[in-house]
Amino acid sequence: VTCGDFSDKTVLITAGPTREALDPVRYITNHSSGKMGYAIAQAAQRAGARVILVSGPTQLATPAGVERIDVTSAQQMLETVMAHVKSCDIFIATAAVADYRASHISQNKIKKKDDELTLTFVKNPDILKEVACLPTPPFTVGFAAESQNVEHYARQKLINKKLDIIAANDISREGLGFNSDQNALHVIWADGDKRLEPQNKKHLACALLTVINDRYNNKKTS
Ligand code: C5P
User: How many folded domains does the chain comprise?
Assistant: First the structure.
């Protein structure tokens, strides 16, 4: 199977969760497995791309031929992405970046004390939005994991974040999405859309890349 021709293209991909420290022994994170991003990285590499994969903590093996850079927090992910974005043609943000981080990372272990504990959080940078708002951005692809009004919220993100494509997935659908091997996507761009039916994430990655290749070429020639 071909997923489009990505030879002489550099694709930068974020994947996995981020991990936000609270103190030297604790952190907050989410259930992202990184499987979708790694599947896209592998498929893009096989389709001829140079692939740079900026990965949060995952259990996954690096796909052959992919340049992987490990990061932990959202801030590290942003710095690493910004250091490589100028050389990339296409940016695909699959990472489940933590929306917030602790306002203050305690130097010492937080001690058990009262019955209630209150922590304060501050907003993390939106990596995808920062990339899409660069003066000369790469072709940008975002993901929208939604549990309701999927298409409506996805279209809002496409516009608000100034993306070329958004791939929406309905996380309320049983057995799909987060931490699963299967997923379905509703791929949306300014003047069209395509539904990719439930399938293995490796096959889905290829189907998504076919759409990306098509829209990328369309943008280049218009
Ligand atoms: O706004 P929301 O988090 O739903 O947007 C999801 C999309 O934005 C995903 O593509 C995700 O990788 C990206 N994102 C990001 N940095 C953030 C939050 C989300 O790159 N801080």
Answer: 1
